[in-house]
Amino acid sequence: MSEPLFKAEAVHKSFRDPKSGASLEALGGLSLEIQEGEFVSVIGPSGSGKTTLLYLMAGFLKPDSGRLLYKGAEVDGPSPERTVIFQDYGLFPWKTAAGNVEFPLKARGLSPSARRAGARKYLSMVHLDGFEDKYPHQLSGGMKQRVGIARALACGPDAVLMDEPFAALDNITREMLQEEILRLWSGLGKTFVLITHHLDEAIFMSRRIIVMSARPGVVKESIAVDLPEPRTAEVKTHPAFTALKARLMKSLREEVEKSLAASRGPALVLDMGVIKVAEKEAL
Ligand SMILES: Nc1ncnc2c1ncn2[C@@H]1O[C@H](COP(=O)(O)OP(=O)(O)OP(=O)(O)O)[C@@H](O)[C@H]1O
Ligand SMILES: [Mg+2]
Questions:
Q1: What is the pTM of this model?
Q2: Burial level of 29, CB count in 10 A (0-12/13-18/19+)?
Q3: What value does the mean pLDDT take over residues 68-93?
Q4: How far apart are CA 246 and CA 213, in angstroms?
């Protein structure tokens, strides 16, 4: 097999509380490989280090020990090659939709006219033709995330890293954006990594699912998703979908129970295949 796009080798990452000085181990020697062109989801209990892993891949953080390799070289800071789509969209409120998408194009050195054309192209890819001049506050949550996706694509990335990108959206918008992301993935041939708390979303979208252990996070298992292609809504009623969901639910439940046993704060529960935070007293 060719060299993986991402390779984590025994990555440890801890955070220190500036007040108490106490150290909290987020990742406990995590190893994984992600191949070029894959669509991989990462699921795991809340606090298991999923965002930490994504930020290491993006270059926002560095491992304390171990190595995080991208194309065989250690990740050394952020790069437009590895772009992140955030849950809260992360748009510039003072820029229009086109202005937000033009921003990375400017960083790539494109002329003003090429930037304008590029912004139109990427906004059109996410069906936002005609909304180029709207400001974020004039757009719905789903439209804001479409701008976020267009801006990520405008970076010209090899890898698109998504941290619960649909969490703030209603179910119908979420499902539409899932399908659009899949369409973009199959059209562009780039590598997509998705962190999600929704098992249905992980199964529907990915070709492989990485299950994280309870904190300190390591890869508990990596499961290939063997479902009919292309993925349409019917896939969700396929027996293999239901069987995989049950398997993932069981695997996650074991980890959530470990988190629960170790935690003195809010507890984690699995509700209809979605990990939620709840007060322990309520359980
Ligand atoms: N910058 C930080 N400073 C201190 N602690 C941090 C920091 N970032 C993460 N942590 C801690 O590291 C652990 C892992 O956090 P992380 O955000 O990676 O978890 P997660 O799996 O993404 O959780 P969630 O599903 O709730 O988003 C948590 O206990 C968190 O409190
Ligand atoms: Mg997170």
A1: 0.91
A2: middle
A3: 94
A4: 17
Residues 6 or more apart whose CB falls under 8 angstroms from that of 85 comprise 145, 148, 149, 152, 160, 161, 162, 163, 165
Going through the chain in order, the beta strands assigned E by DSSP cover: 6-16, 23-34, 39-43, 65-70, 73-74, 82-85, 159-163, 191-195, 208-212, 219-224, 267-271, 274-278
Does the domain at residues 6-81+158-234 carry the CATH identifier 3.40.50.300?
A: yes
For 17-62, the pLDDT digits (tens) are: 888 888 999 999 999 999 999 999 999 999 999 999 999 999 999 9
83-108: pLDDT as tens digits: 999 988 889 999 999 999 999 999 88
- Contact present, 47 and 256 (Cβ < 8 Å): no
**β-pair partners for 65:** 12
Ligand 1 centroid to residue 114 C-alpha, Å: 39
Q: Nearest ligand, CA of residue 86?
A: 2
Q: Which residues surround ligand 2, an ion (CB under 5 A)?
A: 51
Radius of gyration of the CA atoms of the chain, in A = 19
CA of 115 to the centre of ligand 2 (A): 33
Distance between Cα 249 and ligand 1 center (Å): 22
pLDDT of residue 283: 36
Query: Is 213 touching ligand 1 by the criterion CB < 6 Å?
Result: no
Give residue limits of the domains in the chain.
6-81+158-234, 88-156
ω into 18 cis (within 30 of 0) = no
Mutate to test the pocket of ligand 1, among 30, 48, 256 (most ligand atoms within 8 A of CB): 48
Give the whole-angstrom CA distance, residue 120 versus residue 129.
7
Assigned token pair, 33 = 């490989």
Q: Which of 258, 232, 254, 236 is nearest to 245 (CA)?
A: 236
